[in-house]
Design goal:
With 385 residues, the protein is an alpha/beta fold. It has helices at residues 3-18, 37-50, 83-90, 148-161, 174-182, 207-210, 212-221, 232-237, 239-249, 265-269, 279-288, 314-317, 334-341, 345-359, 366-384; strands spanning 27-31, 55-59, 74-78, 96-99, 117-121, 142-145, 167-170, 195-198, 225-228, 255-257, 272-275, 292-295, 323-326. It has two domains: 3-173 and 363-384, Rossmann fold, CATH 3.40.50; 186-359, Glycogen Phosphorylase B (Rossmann fold), CATH 3.40.50.
Length: 385
Amino acid sequence: MSGVHSLLKSWQNLRAFKRLPANHRHIVIYSESRQDWHHHEALIRCLTEDHGQTICYVSSDATDPGLHQANERILPFCIGSGLFRIVFFQTLQADVLLTQLLDLDNLDLKRSVYPVFYIHMFHSMVSTHMADRADSYDHYDAILCAGPHHVSEIRKRELLHGLPAKQLIEHGYARLEQLIEARRDPPQPEGQNVHVLLAPSWGDQTILNSCGMELAGILLEAGFRLTLRPHFQTRWNSPQVIDRIVDRFGDHPRFSLVELMSESDSLYDSHVMITDWSGAGIDYGLGLEKPVLYIDVPPKSRNNTWHELGIEPFESSVRDKIGAILAPDNLAAAPRIIGELLGDRARFRDQVRSLRANAVFNLGSSARAGAAAVVKIAGEVSNAA
């Protein structure tokens, strides 16, 4: 689609949204990209099927599956990611907006000039206070929390900075439930069938930028199958680090590349994940009950005051409970540590299940809990108008 045609479609969709009757703009869900859909899907299904709600699904990505559902209760609108998205946010008229967007009102996407109740839903189990900006969640009215750590962190920040208390809802984490339900055990790990999934986060100090080439060579030399699954932001921000590894190892019979975040076979068919500070490691360990080897690069942080909360981030505290930690200057030890991690699978699974039971809200029923909360809030907002 040409740039001009895309802009025209975005404008037409924005106008069509604004022309909707007010009762059709009761619950609006905004998605930044197609990567959001596998987090939204279960909750939307509960909203439309269990609660009979008609929702507006607004996305900036024309390929977002949420725009192409055969569901008459989902009204789809693609508004692009430029000027019309800014206009959409600033002039939104709705009872509730649910989104996974970070930094509402901090950057170019502002709260509407009209009264709207904003709900944030997490797309990761990582903590709120290290990986994200200090004020990334300050301007939401309610938060669908994945686990108790989110509640503790947000309440502590509100206390320290005198912020209004948000509605903190015990929601859960649908992605974890999807992995648990669909998981399958790969073949018994032995010899050259040990399948390693290299799935780092994105950023200048993460694995691919700092030691990806060396690590990939060590793993292949050790006889492992290696699947590289870079974060989609890496392709946008530093594609050359992916391309260099692919240029070097792309023809190797035990190397493969996966760049679609919604792809799951590499998760199910691998025996161990290697990552750094990515939330994907938590999903893998807690959801698939398989070990994670963490390369101990500097923490991924966009908040240099995170220590003020006095709470260790979840993505830090969980690392040695779902795997092992390896210094980047000791990469040669990776094959040995992987062998050790795969040694006692029964004990590892018992440990993970115990951890998971205490770390996640409403395991197995998060969509029902989230949808019920959204419907209740939307009803209260509508009745108060």
